[in-house]
Amino acid sequence: YPSEFLVQKITEENQIPVHVHVSVSLQYVAGLKGSALVEFFHGNIAEVENEELRHLMWSSVLFYKTPTVEVMACVLLSTKAIYFLLDDSFVHADEHQSDFWNKENSDCENSSFHLSCCFVLKLNDLQSVNVGLFDQYFRITGHSADQIVTCLTRDSYNTHTFIQQLMAVLSLLARTPSPEPVDKDFYSEFGSKNTGKMENYELIHSSRVKFIYPNEEEIGDLAFLVAEKMDGLTNLPSLNILLYVLAFQVNHVEGSAQNTSSLQPKTLILTSSDLFLFDEDYISYPLPEFAKEPPKRDKYQLADGRRIRDLDRVLMGYQTYPQALTFVFDDVQNQDLMQNLTLDHFGE
């Protein structure tokens, strides 16, 4: 029997972001309020009778097995597991996923049922949580490649709230204490430094789940990468990253009956002299322990870059969050910066 405060809080959080179109089944879930939402959880999702629903969040998610398919999910955190209630269209988006999902209910496709897939990650299988730069996303890692999910909240508040709730729930788990650390000798202490891995800030929870936060070196690496893309037109010491935000680039679809637009996930990076859009791999880095080879693509791939001094005006929409911004650049001939970028971006 959850408290009234908890029921009210979960009801308030049960809102699909305005810019997202989801299937009928997820719209049904988003329409549930109060005790109906808790009853739905216990009747349709919960795997154990005595588990409690503690937190609900709507977020885009990425799976390690399908790193290019971003899908909207209703993320439910209980005292036993994390449930990802997914749009049914996701299963049909990629034919390679059939093994991953073991879909056997294709007979129901033409019936009046609206199906949703539910991916379950039990808290006992949870090993680590990697928090992304500026809390824009976080990655949950279990024992295998099937159990790696990134939640692209694009919102530091949602990330922070979920992590706090997850830590609180993990505190309830009774796990065997970890063995006493073995005293390292001189050679192993100094010999292990040459792994080539960057040491991040780690917080090891009492449940032995690691919470890993990025350190200053990641921003330094990112600044170096940005300067490299600028092809040496600026001196690195003066390059400061002022803003890092996960956003969408709006591409208007021409010729469609309605004025529709597709949203392309991008990482926007603002420096003191330039504005960049990157395609970022949010799920493959840092490499999981069982990964045999590095990912097929780099973490950051440059999509576009413009000089701030060529920015003519910024148009702001009047709609509520998420805010739409249109950057209008002067179409200057002989843009020295863009020449190098276009060579890098469009050709060998």
UniProtKB/TrEMBL annotation:
Pfam families: PH_NISCH_C, PH_PLEKHM2
Cell compartment(s), UniProt: Cytoplasm
A biological process term (GO) from this entry: regulation of protein localization
Alphabetical keyword list: Cytoplasm
An example Gene Ontology molecular-function term: kinesin binding
Provenance organism: Formicarius rufipectus
Highest taxon of source: Eukaryota
Keyword presence, Cytoplasm: yes
GO CC annotations on file: endosome membrane
Cell membrane found in the keyword field: no
InterPro entries (alphabetical): PH_domain-containing_M2 (IPR053015), PH_NISCH_C (IPR057714), PH_PLEKHM2 (IPR057288)
Domain PLEKHM2 PH: start-end pairs: 114-178
Domain Nischarin C-terminal PH residue range list: 241-347
Protein name listed in UniProt: NISCH protein
